[in-house]
Amino acid sequence: MASNRGQGGIQQLLAAEQEAQRIVNAAKNEKLARLKQAKEEAEKEVAEYRAQLERDFQQKVSDSTGDSGANVKRLEQETEEKIHHLKTEAARISDDVVAMLLKYVTSVQN
Q: What UniProt keywords are attached to this protein's entry (predicted)?
């Protein structure tokens, strides 16, 4: 009977060891599944973040391009104003310049 008890105790220990191994394997599998899920979620978040950054960048490029068009128009207007000012000034003093040139060309000095 003692050998039966000993045999039964060994069987019980083996069963407990197998149960413990099954529990450990299940925990490992759950851990791997959680890690895989966390990795997938992190990759999804990174992709969303990159997409948001790209949208922000494209918006800034679009905004600055729009400003560039306004700057071109402003520069064209300023250029036209300066050209008009120069033409006005040239017309105002052209008679004096012509008279001065004629004076120097026609005067003879010894």
A: Coiled coil, Hydrogen ion transport, Ion transport, Transport
Dig out the tokens for 75 from the structure: 């520069």
Q: Round to whole Å and give the CA distance between 35 and 40.
A: 9
Largest CA distance in the chain: 154
SS3 of the chain: the string is CHHHHHHHHHHHHHHHHHHHHHHHHHHHHHHHHHHHHHHHHHHHHHHHHHHHHHHHHHHHHHHHHHHHHHHHHHHHHHHHHHHHHHHHHHHHHHHHHHHHHHHHHHCCCC
CA distance 38 to 30: 12
| pLDDT one-digit tens code per residue, 23-73 | 999 999 999 999 999 999 999 999 999 999 999 999 888 877 766 677 788
Whether the predicted pLDDT of 2 surpasses 80: no
